[in-house]
UniProtKB/TrEMBL annotation, chain A:
Pfam families named in the record: Sigma70_r2, Sigma70_r4_2
Listed GO biological process terms: DNA-templated transcription initiation
Keyword Cytoplasm found: no
Protein known as: RNA polymerase sigma factor
CDD domains: Sigma70_r4
TrEMBL record, chain B:
Organism: Pontibacter diazotrophicus
Keyword Cytoplasm: no
Name listed for the protein in its UniProt record: PorT family protein
Domain Outer membrane protein beta-barrel: 346-533
Start and end residues of each stretch annotated as Disordered: 87-177
Chain segments annotated as transmembrane: 57-76
Keywords linked to the UniProt accession: Membrane, Transmembrane, Transmembrane helix
Bias type Polar residues, positions: 153-164
Entry keyword Membrane: yes
Chain intervals with Low complexity compositional bias: 138-152
Length: 191, 571
């Protein structure tokens, strides 16, 4: 009877197990994607504690709604999207998306020639987490997730122009941070 | 996710994306436990949402079962004398068939019933005890009343033999009138059936006993509360204490406050316990699952299958003239035998015509073993009871012959079914007579060993359908033929008796229906079931005057299934 049916992949079995509510399958899926998704959450949340809160809420959503997964995209992509949406909702709920102007003073310190090769993941995360919430969101969505400004504007309920301007500020802040780090490093070497 | 505006993406964006997109970081060790806990809470919430439905379903099932049980109990116990032991039927002593089998006096029964219902309990209580009847002693009512009942019942049995012996009864004008006699007997029973009345009398004569014991109980409760340090002052006072009304409002307020505070404490304790339990359950879950993976093929289940059983009497097209030929061997010189022969034909025809399907039910405890993902092998042990109903207006008495019935005191009158299942109809052994119509119940009890296959398919997350087929070896434990007339003997064939019925009966069954997965590895199924027997119930149908077909049963199968260590909601 199953002669012409496509054999099921491991991912299909995993999804079916999760749809059936099998806890061991849910654990398996969690083990597969939790590390990548943790970084996603850390990029959006200001602290590790809040990142874990977001991840917990997002994984519960994943398991509750996995029956609605259409399989028209990779499972990881679908889970990542849930993580991002949950993070946005989480921060929106906490009203953290108000624009902060405290970092504007460093906007013109950017150096396009800076390289990130010498930075660890923790250092990069710290830089992103130090951004004001609205800048952090826009930077993550544009630079790392790959959304365009129109999509970001719809997601954050802001205009495309606002998204662009906030992104350019966020970018400038980051470049300023990198420049300062490089200067400090050079000073340490020369001394 | 569409691509971003790549024209504006510089080195910074590319480097951040390449470093961050696939980066990994380990979350906290407890994060999964928190997710697991939240999922469990969600599932419990979902379960609670459906709890109302399940409660209603359970209530409906229980109501159905009670109704079925009540109907069954009423069905089997309603004819007076159906369960009466054989010993209560007097052996026939007269030679003539009509004289031997005296018809039951309906008038007497009616008169007795009227006498019993119209005698008020008080009147019976106050009435002077009849000579021979035991006086009601409030100190020891039960033995006295039982004695009187026993005496009255022995009088009843004596009266059925036609012998007038009513020394224990007041008989002003009874004489030999059976109507008056039965009325007197019933009246005596009504008089002696007074344990309840005695209790009532004791309660009425001693109204202080109950109230005294109530006060003692309250006093004891009050003392216990006082020892616990929670005693309100009000409870320490006797109920009827004067002045209680004046303090009632304040005391009640205090009491109310204390009760409310206690309830609040209890609620907080319950919440704390629930929280602790959930945490403990969540921490245990992983280790339990690890242990459970090896045994997930096995399941246990119980099933209840009520239905209708059709024995197929008179449906096989068997020629009933063969029986008439047998009966024609009866001695032609005896006129009573000729009448009996005629009656016998009519009796068999009437019995076969009136044979109706009866109530059938079965309980099964099953073990399941998954052969494949959806295919399950089931086997177990069960109990099955099938009933066939009929009505008859004839009684048959055998004085000789009938090897089956000989060991069961068949010298008394019996239903036509008994000699009909016999293959040894001695020509001079049957006396048949007409009687008011009575009911006959044929009851077969089996020990069943079912083996079957069940295939399941999903209909959704929690619902599934199933279809199954199997065979069962049915070992006949007991056959009982019960007659509602007190004049007709009941016959029982036990496991060790030489029975005309098959000791081992094979049957096949098919069933289908829907099931619902509940939480905690439980599932319930319900659906119709058809069971057909491969042979007739009678072992030798060739000589049976009543035509026999293959029986079958149609009913409903309701089952509860528990999967052993298969993990939550596993399929």
């Amino acid at each position: 009877m199953k002669l012409f049916t496509k054999p099921k992949s491991d991912e299909d079995k995993l999804i079916e197990g999760c749809i059936a509510g099998k806890r061991e399958m849910q654990r398996l899926l969690y083990d597969l994607y939790s590390k990548k998704m943790m970084v996603v959450c850390l990029r959006y949340a200001p602290t590790t504690f809040e990142a874990e809160d977001i991840m917990q809420e997002a994984f519960v959503k994943v398991f509750s709604n996995i029956g609605n997964f259409k399989r028209d995209c990779p499972l990881e992509f679908w889970i990542r999207k849930i993580m991002v949406n949950t993070a946005l909702k989480h921060l929106r709920g906490k009203q953290l998306l108000t624009v902060s102007h405290e970092a504007e003073e460093v906007s013109n310190l950017a150096s396009e020639s800076s390289s990130l090769t010498g930075y660890s993941l923790d250092e990069l995360l710290s830089m992103i987490q130090s951004l004001a919430p609205r800048y952090r969101m826009v930077f993550n969505l544009y630079a790392i997730e790959g959304y365009n400004h129109k999509e970001i504007g719809e997601m954050l309920d802001i205009s495309e122009g606002t998204s662009k301007s906030q992104y350019s500020r966020a970018r400038a802040i980051l470049q300023g941070m990198i420049s300062r780090q490089e200067n400090n490093y050079k000073n340490v070497i020369s001394s | 996710m569409s691509s971003a505006a790549n024209d504006k993406r510089g080195k910074l964006e590319e480097e951040f994306q390449s470093r961050m997109y696939d980066a990994e970081a380990s979350p906290s060790q407890h994060l999964w436990d928190r997710i697991d806990h939240e999922l469990t809470v969600q599932e419990n919430g979902a379960y609670k949402q459906h709890a109302g439905f399940y409660r209603q379903l359970a209530a409906a099932c229980i109501t159905l079962l009670l109704l079925a049980g009540g109907l069954g109990a009423w069905y089997f116990s309603s004819p007076a004398g159906t369960e009466q032991p054989i010993a209560t039927v007097a052996p026939a002593t007269n030679s003539g068939p009509a004289a031997t089998l005296s018809a039951p006096s309906e008038e007497a029964e009616m008169a007795g019933a009227v006498a019993a219902t119209t005698t008020p309990p008080k009147q019976a209580e106050r009435k002077a005890p009849a000579p021979g009847a035991t006086e009601i002693n409030p100190a020891a009512p039960a033995p006295a009343a039982l004695g009187a009942i026993a005496e009255a019942s022995s009088t009843t049995s004596r009266s059925k033999t036609g012998v007038t012996d009513a020394t224990a009864l007041p008989q002003p004008d009874a004489g030999n009138d059976p109507v008056a006699e039965m009325a007197a007997v019933t009246l005596t029973i009504a008089e002696t059936k007074t344990p309840d009345a005695v209790e009532e009398a004791v309660e009425k004569e001693n109204p202080l006993i109950l109230s005294r014991s109530l006060r003692q109980t309250i006093a004891a409760l009050s003392a216990t509360e006082q020892q616990a340090g929670n005693s309100p002052a009000l409870l320490q006072q006797p109920f009827a204490a004067k002045g209680a009304e004046a303090k009632a409002t304040d005391d009640f307020r205090k009491l109310n406050e204390q009760v409310m505070a206690h309830a609040k404490r209890m609620e907080e304790e319950q919440k704390a316990r629930l929280l602790a339990y959930n945490e403990a359950a969540a921490s245990k879950k992983d280790s339990e699952k690890e242990n459970s993976k090896g045994n997930s093929r096995w399941s246990l289940g119980m099933a209840y299958a009520p239905g209708y059983f059709n024995q197929n009497i008179g449906s096989s097209g068997q020629d009933m003239s063969a029986a008439s030929d047998q009966m024609s061997l009866m001695p032609s010189s005896s006129s009573s035998a000729s009448i009996s022969s005629l009656y016998m034909d009519e009796a068999r025809e009437e019995y076969a015509e009136n044979a109706d399907p009866g109530f059938s039910f079965g309980f099964e405890a099953k073990t399941g073993f998954k052969l494949g993902k959806k295919l399950k092998l089931l086997t177990g042990l069960g109990f099955l009871q099938n009933t066939t109903r009929s009505r008859s207006s004839y009684m048959v008495q055998e004085s000789l012959g009938n090897s089956y019935a000989r060991g069961f005191n068949s010298s008394g009158p019996s239903t036509v079914f008994i000699p009909s299942i016999s293959s040894n109809l001695a020509a001079d052994s049957l006396y048949v007579t007409r009687t008011p119509e009575y009911k006959v119940n044929q009851r077969h009890r089996f020990l069943t060993v079912p083996v079957g296959l069940q295939y399941e398919g999903n209909m959704g997350k929690d619902w599934f359908w199933y279809g199954g087929a199997g065979v069962a070896a049915n070992i006949l434990l007991q056959t009982t033929i019960l007659a509602s007339s007190a004049e007709v003997e009941d016959v029982a064939y036990d496991l060790q008796d030489d029975s005309p019925f098959r000791k081992l009966q094979w049957s096949g069954n098919v069933s289908g229906g829907v099931g619902k997965r509940l939480g905690g590895n439980m599932s319930v199924t319900v659906g119709p079931e058809f069971r057909s027997y491969f042979n007739t119930l009678l072992a030798e149908t060739e000589n049976a005057p009543l035509p026999q077909g293959r029986p079958y049963a149609v009913g409903l199968n309701m089952a509860v299934n528990y999967e052993l260590n298969a993990g939550k909601k596993s399929r």
